[in-house]
Structure formats: C-alpha cells, structure tokens
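Attaching the record inline, Q. Sequence:
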Amino acid sequence: MKPTLFVLAAGMGSRYGGLKQLDGVGPNGETIMDYSIYDAVNAGFGKLVFVIRQSFEKDFREKIVKKYESKIPVELVFQELDALPEGFSVPEGRVKPWGTNHAVMMGKEVINEPFAVINADDFYGRESFNVLADYLKNLENCENKYCMIGYRVGNTLSESGTVARGVCETDKDGNLTGVVERTQVKRIDEAVKYKDEHENWITIDDNTPVSMNMWGFTPDYFQHSDDHFVKFLKENVENTKAEYFIPLVVNNLIVNGVSSVKVLDTPSKWFGVTYADDRPGVVEKLQKLVDDGVYPSPLW
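Structure, as predicted:
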C-alpha cells in the first residue's frame, strides 16, 4: 500500500490574505507546495490529503486541487474551531485554531494507511520525501512505530535573522527521546548557536537534527490524538491561545513508552519564507535547482 501525504494548509487563507496571493516563487510561478507534491508523487506517495478551513474550500478546489488531481488522488478535510469531542464547546474569546495536531486529527476518516505530515509552505527537498516514503512503505499493519525527518540544523537557517528550531535528542538507536524548542538559533562566526535561558549563545554541531514538522505516522496515531486531546482541553479550557501541537502528543507517547519515533537523517536543505527578506533567497534557490536539472521548468 502506498503512503499518503497529509498537507497542513488550514492557515493558508488567512496567512496569504486569500488564495489569490498564494506566492509563486518558482521560475514559472510555482508555489513551494508544488515542489513538495512533485517530490512526493515521484517518491511513491499514493494519495494527497489537504486539511483546510471550510471558508476557502471553493477557492482551494479551483486554484489548488484542480492542479493536482490528474497526477494523484486528492481529498479535502476541514479544521474548524468547533471540531471538538463530545461535552466540549469553543471557549468564549477563542479565535485561534487549535494547532497542528488538531489539524492532523481531521484526517481520521479518510486516511487508513501510513501517512506523512508536512506544512504547506515549507520546502523540504527531494531526498526527504524519498527517505520518508521508503520508511512508511514498511509500516503497513504496524502500530506505534513512527518517524520524523531530522534536518541537519545547519541546513535550515535564515540569513535574515534568528529562527526557532525544535532540537532533537536521540538514543543510541536513533529514536527520538525529546525535542527542546530553541527560539533563537542562527549562525555566528561560522558556527551554529542558540541562545539559552540565561541569554548565553551555545554552539551546537551543524549536523544536530532538528524537527521541521515532517512526520510519519500510522493510523493508530489518530486514536492517541483523540485521547490526549480530551486531557489537553480539560487543562487548557481557559487559555484561549493554547495550541495542540504535534510534538506535545509525540513527546507524551515517547515519555510513557507507548510509541517510538525514528529520527531519519536527510541531506536536504530546508527553506521557507520566515521573514519577508527570505523571499528573494527562496526564488534564487529554486532557480538554481532548476538550472542544476533537479526540477523541470515548468514543473508539471
């Protein structure tokens, strides 16, 4: 069975001021997402699922789904604030979505095979999709054996300022033991450094794995997410900004010995538009990949 690619795109409409401005950064107006889907199709993913907000379904089908459905089967699922377990309602004043793991939960009805989760607007690179697809293809009928792509931190930095990165800690078998969020990471004098809680800059190796929200799960993950979400809501019902993130659930499963998460190395360089100043660099990098023959132009 081929794995599914699950694309988190519910923030798209608001982030881009409507889909009409979905940013064309490739030589022929391709979006970053176009490259991810091209790489996923070539890596052997068999289905594409987008999680979006219902408010821009019409636009999304017209501008996005139409583009891909001749290449790969496409499904849409919806993340809404009121998609809550029985007995819970949206707290007064809550306008912020419930976070990345809540978005993942929306795929439960349409995903019955091993699946990858990615952000819509990050460039992950061909090798990452190949590594992830190969791993997921061996997980059919498995439970509680997950994975994530661990990017080498030196391959994920912005030249425009500091970035936040989830620095991964692993055991001797390459399984994830924890993710420590470092909110200020950048290259200083040729070395990668992060600022610790005492305002000191700490040097880390260029190859230290970090999480860029590229995960691999099996369908049993949905049940774990549902169960943990009830606990999360009970604890955060008064907090209108609390978000139910993927690492929160993953960490809980690891700490309690329920699941293991293999950290898979990739030589790919991650990039995205963290700052407005990053955009020209993204355009340049994609142009170079096309010039080097990594991607055709136009892409499809």
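The CA atoms of residues 125 and 268 lie 5 Å apart. DSSP finds eight helices and 13 strands in the chain.

More tomorrow.
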